[in-house]
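Thread: Modeling a multi-component assembly for a lab meeting

Hi all, long-time lurker, first post. My supervisor asked me to bring a structural picture of a complex we are working on to next week's group meeting, and I have zero experience with this. I have the sequence lines for every component (586 residues in total). Could someone generate the structure of the whole assembly? Inputs are pasted exactly as I received them:
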Amino acid sequence: MSAPIDATALGVFIALFALVTVLGFIAARWHKADLSHINEWGLAGRRFGTLITWFLIGGDLYTAYTFIAVPAAVYGGGAAGFFAVPYTIVAYPFFFLIAPRLWNVCKRHSFVTAADFVEGRYGDRNLALAVAITGILATLPYIALQLIGMQVVISSLGIGGSGLAGDLPLFVAFVVLATYTYTSGLRAPAMIALVKDVMIYVTVVVAVVAVPMKLGGFAHVFAAADAAFAARPPGAPPASVILQPGAYWAYGTLAIGSAMALFLYPHAVTGILAASRGDAVRRNAVLLPAYSLALGLLALFGYMAIAAGLNIAKPNLAVPALIHALFPSWFAGFAFAAIAVGALVPAAIMSIAAANLWTRNVYKPFINPRATPQQEGQQAKLTSLVVKFGALAFVLAFSSQYAINLQLLGGVWMLQTLPAVVLGLFTRALHRTALLCGWFAGMATGTAMFLATGFKPTFALHAGGIAVAAYIAVEALAVNLLLAALLTPVFDRAGIARGTDATTAGDYEDEASAGLPIPTIA
Amino acid sequence: MKTGSRPANAWRWLLLIPVLALAFPALYARRDPVLFGFPFFYWYQFAWLFGSAAVTLLVYRKTR
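Re: Modeling a multi-component assembly
Sure thing. I ran the full set together rather than chain by chain. Output:
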């Protein structure tokens, strides 16, 4: 399945990859500090301003896999695959409401993870453990997907392919990534994100302007997709350019449910907590949709690949095949490097985030309660290596479909931490034990529905003779919330203690509005 | 700042608008009118990308 080697594209690709590697190691000296401390290694000392935060969170959320998989979904399924766009639009109003509160309370109390916050808020380390384990489990397959994204571009360059030697380029890239993440911590992906995002924007802008011109305009691109979908044989999975009524609820709930889950993911939380001020977080709610625009335009590459009449073995190859077919080799090398580096940034942040969770919410409370900040830092660094090589081994050993299925299930799981984390930012109305029961019920029903539908993200609920297919994560969240609300008065009446709240109302607000004496500076 | 926090919070309800505008595809899953070659389904969602950012900016300005 490997393409023939394109020497020019490969040369450009390797040169850019080398540049990024150097940056990853140099990053250790950026805002020089004691990197053995978890706050420095795992959150870069919380000192990123608005611009770096924009690059970091953008580079973190809009992953290489997204840039491959969303156009692939549109190529294969039409309008239904476009839900990623409303998803990444709706995410920001939500982000605006929760992220500044989360940043403030974590800054005041030196919380490193969302689970740290849950422990502080509810005084319950078991509830925190549930949040931490959910985050770790949802993150591992996500890291594996970044590797798959990288595999796709590597195979498009003509290197890679089957067998042990074929896996070598991926292995080399990953060893390099693991080494500089170990030495530089969150500073490495933050610095690399600057380069990566500029490369992604250049690629998208050039491609979005040039490709429709070569293909005869957007009207022709949409018409070609229409014709291709209409010509599908009756047995093939249905697809259409305009969403069909039967898919409305699935589309809407996938968009809203994914948007609510997005900022619960550990790598998203890590990006938020590394900001220097609540205002930097808030400004990013306005600025980050620029990435959604890039993603939306890239999604249309799925239709462009159809209009270009490319013969593609797998939908995942739609973007690389289109770039290879329509652009000179050097630009293809540049674009492929953008995607591959686009895999390194999130993979690094995800492994750091999972390592922070393990260290702060499993290792420290349950294994070594007297760990010093330095021991925590060392534990986190080692964990980041374990996590990355675990993901690598998984991708090399199993079919990529396993990772894709597990990542879908991970999204369902992640949303089940919403009651404890997001509602916890606003109210303590729910009892900690009721939250734990709700979480367990949500995880169990979500997993059961996912298995029952044969690894599909939507599950049809039958009510009054009508079947409505909706996103499993949302359905499981309803069970979760209902149970937590019903059990709260039960546990209260049974006299089970609420646990101590280490936070105060003012901890969630920016310092100026929390009534602290801040001198006014014009 | 402190005294203004109640009315300021009311601005946050505006954030619901883009969510409601996109949550129900029945509102926009149509082909016509076509704009610059884009079926309505696509340009409506792209338009809300800017609309949502504008609403968020407004709320940001009003709640500072």
